[in-house]
Amino acid sequence: MNAKESIVNGKAALGIEFGSTRIKAVLVDENCKALAVGSYQWENQLVDGVWTYSLEAIHTGLQACYKALAEKVQGQYGVPLKKLASLGISAMMHGYMAFNEKDELLVPFRTWRNTMTEEAAAKLTQEFQVNVPERYSISHLYQAVLRKEPHVKDIAFFTTLAGYIHWQLTGEKVLGVGDASGMFPIDCSTKDYDKEKLAKFDKLVEEYHFPWTLKDILPKSLTAGEKAGVLTEAGAKMLDPTGTLEAGVPMCPPEGDAGTGMVATNSVKVRTGNVSAGTSVFAMIVMEKALKNLHTEIDLVTTPAGDLVAMVHCNNCTSDINTWVNLFEEFAEAAGMKIDRGQLFDLLFKKALEGEPDCGGLLSYNYFSGESITGFDEGRPLFVRHANDKVSLGNFMRVHLFTALGALKNGLDILLKEEKVPVDKIYGHGGFFTVPGAGQKIMAAAMNTPVSVMDTASEGGAWGIAVLAQYLVTGAGKDLADYLDQEVFAGQTGTTLEPDAADVKGFDDFLVRYNKGLAIERAAVESI
């Protein structure tokens, strides 16, 4: 069946993912080959000290992204997008969206980027004896309890961004287990919330006499391949106000960007891992067994199938790089030169490969927001050097690529060197890897392990959730890892780069300087 027939006959699956700065939609055929892509740019807002997106922005972004995709389909294939085989929603994990019995949002959406939950996260980590990071939904809920926020008693349901959108489209209050694991710890033997820890939380808040138990207000956890409802008439109208899209589309469990990243890189098998590097950066490795010790730098989540994953997550990655690229772009325009933005990224990233292995002594921090791994509630991007350090373009760009992985490297050293978690394959995806070979080479140096980038990596999590949507209707009961190997990635190619010894040593030398210089970053936070 060709692409046009696949679309007309309703055999194509659609995935939509809400990233930090872009909402992206990918339509795929029965073999998960991308047929059309649409996107919409958006930005979070800092309102009263809270990073948030308004409900209006969420709904507007969803419709605009879908409209862009539908127009691409009409333009490329000459047919309207009326029928879908299946549909999936993905979004940034964690955060806090709490609703009352009237389905009203009680407080503005608190995204993963907020780090005001330090007290709650520390207390829950101690109580559960597993790491509960500041960005997790349960940390936000418990911090609201500790602050005695009046809305808490009125909560009837709380969820993530993906869970909210899925709920609006289907009426179902469910969540994929991978996204659910970023709300509350999961018991991988049951693929559901850990009952013992649920009871411990209820005991913790017993004195407040809330009219709910935690289990009552959490979304139901589902694994990949399970039915998660259908697109309702109201949902279809919300997604496509023109009324062209037909309702009744089966929907897969809504997932977080970590889970879709694993799918997009074929990294759901034990001893495989992936690094997703964009606005934030996280590395995930599917584990054979639990970690020996509790580490506050390591998060425990799951694959969309419910298998245990160790994650190192950092809030900051490419935002500061984008700022510097913007500056170079402005300079070029002021000099009367018009350089394509993609070519500019290509030029600057490749210059980083010409820099000295340790960046010539330069140091920078990309902390747009706090970074829990290194102990920061707030951040201040900065660049610092000795007077006699060599400020070449190569060294300058190299240090900004290095520092994008600085906090991540600290967490990975615990996972790989201290816990000795075995890894056979690492796959990279996200904006950091857009320029062929550049980000990949730097990542191989940071991890001291081969890093592969698949040809499909540029499609990212939106393609990953489209694959999960197609898996729902064409998986035929196959294990998710087998489905990916045999149906999706069979015959696909990519590139693998081995770590260069000089680069590895250079990154290690840089990391010593990075960790010692954290005092400078702390002074910047306190002084500016």
UniProtKB/TrEMBL annotation:
Domain Carbohydrate kinase FGGY C-terminal: from-to ranges: 274-471
Pfam families reported in the protein's UniProt record: FGGY_C (PF02782), FGGY_N (PF00370)
Keywords: Kinase, Transferase
InterPro entries to which the protein is assigned, alphabetical: ATPase_NBD, FGGY_C, FGGY_Carb_Kinase, FGGY_N
KW rRNA-binding (keyword) present: no
Family designation: Belongs to the FGGY kinase family.
PANTHER family referenced in this protein's UniProt entry, alphabetically: SUGAR KINASE, XYLULOSE KINASE
Protein's recorded name: FGGY-family carbohydrate kinase
